[in-house]
Design brief:
By secondary structure, the protein is mainly α. It has helices at about 1-15, 15-40, 45-85, 105-115, 120-130, 145-150, 165-180, 185-195, 195-200, 205-220, 230-245, 250-260, 275-280, 285-300, 305-330. α2 (about 15-40) runs antiparallel to α3 (about 45-85), α4 (about 105-115) packs antiparallel against α5 and α10 (about 205-220) runs antiparallel to α11.
């Protein structure tokens, strides 16, 4: 997959279609201008065509060069794609021992849950509607079922239509959007406070991490940056916030709070201070968003990563080896009789 992404990036940089389209459009404009000129003054046709010969030839050469780069890039990308498809052209494994072949409702539910987790609510709604129109066995209809109940019981896709479940994920994506795109931690902080007891029972650091990033954000100038606020004003805003919010965290995070307070002495030159990694961490917002997603899903009884994504990735890694083994077993007329383990050791990372 990494090689595919690398070749795709090369193709985008070295052979952009926009340049080729621009050159083609320039040639078309040139020909249209010449046609209009001849139409207005037919007597000048020989002179106009003579003047057009060299520019048109040059433009065709430019277009040919553009297409050459594109074809070359597509060729490299196609080769990388063929290498990535290790089991291309090979037969798919049989479903003789496929535990899910008789459980299509579980597959539909996994797909529906994945779409909801990814925030694709309209697509999930359409998929669940079509899946529910063709019942695949007995299922329990629950209007306000909790997600952990959905994942632990053998119900079908009907339960995923719960408005409560959709609202939970809609709230999560709203908070993530505010955090990533608007640098607004208030919705996430409000949610963390509302679930403080559950987060503390899990030993989560999310609430303090939100407070730490809010302190840092205020310290460096908030939404305006330090260029629009004096350093003293930034420090005062951060100090006021710390006095209001960090009192409840002293018992567990006293050392971290002391580090934040100690950083004020280095305000004029934070880049050279021991606290540079705290106040100039370019990945702090994305890391916090990931941490928030993990904790949010955990309180719903779900894993941070989509089970469908994990299963698909694991299958893509393991399938080539298992297909090769299946071919060998057929040639030697043997069978793997142990059903509780794979016949080969496969590292899935």
């Amino acid at each position: 997959m990494d090689s595919l992404l690398e070749e795709h990036e090369k193709l985008s940089k070295k052979a952009p279609l926009s340049k080729g389209l621009q050159d083609v459009q320039q040639t078309i404009d040139m020909l249209i201008k010449a046609r209009n000129s001849i139409s207005d003054n037919p007597v000048s046709a020989p002179v106009t065509l003579a003047k057009l010969q060299n520019p048109v030839k040059a433009s065709f050469d430019t277009i040919k060069s553009d297409l050459g780069e594109i074809y070359k890039g597509l060729g490299s990308w196609s080769k990388a794609l063929d290498k990535a498809q290790k089991f291309k052209g090979k037969p798919l494994p049989t479903t003789d021992y496929n535990a899910l072949s008789s459980q299509p409702s579980l597959i539909n539910r996994a797909i529906g849950m994945h779409l909801l987790r990814e925030g694709q609510f309209s697509v999930a709604s359409a998929f669940l509607s079509e899946a529910s129109s063709k019942p695949l066995g007995a299922s329990v209809s629950v209007n306000n079922a909790r997600p952990e109940h959905l994942m632990s019981t053998g119900v079908g896709v009907d339960t995923l239509s719960s408005e409560g479940l959709r609202k939970q994920f809609a709230d999560m994506y709203y908070i993530l959007d505010e955090m990533r795109n608007k640098k607004n931690l208030l919705p996430a902080t409000k949610w963390a406070r509302a679930n403080s007891a559950s987060l503390e029972a899990r030993g989560s650091n999310l609430e303090f991490e939100l407070g730490t990033l809010q302190f840092v954000w205020l310290f460096i100038g908030g939404p305006h940056g330090s260029d629009h606020m004096k350093s003293a004003e930034c420090q005062q805003a951060a100090l006021s916030y710390a006095r209001e919010e960090f009192g409840n965290f002293q018992g567990r995070y006293l050392r971290q709070i002391q580090q934040l307070m100690g950083a004020m002495a280095f305000c004029p030159n934070l880049m050279e201070s021991p606290y540079r990694h705290i106040f100039h961490n370019t990945e702090a917002w994305e890391n916090l968003a990931t941490s928030f997603t993990r904790e949010f899903c955990s309180l719903l009884g779900l894993s941070a990563d989509s089970p469908l994504y994990v299963a698909s990735t694991a299958g893509a890694i393991a399938l080539p080896t298992l297909l090769k083994l299946q071919t060998i077993m057929k040639e030697k007329h043997t069978e793997w009789t142990t059903q509780h383990e794979l016949p080969v050791r496969k590292i899935l990372h």
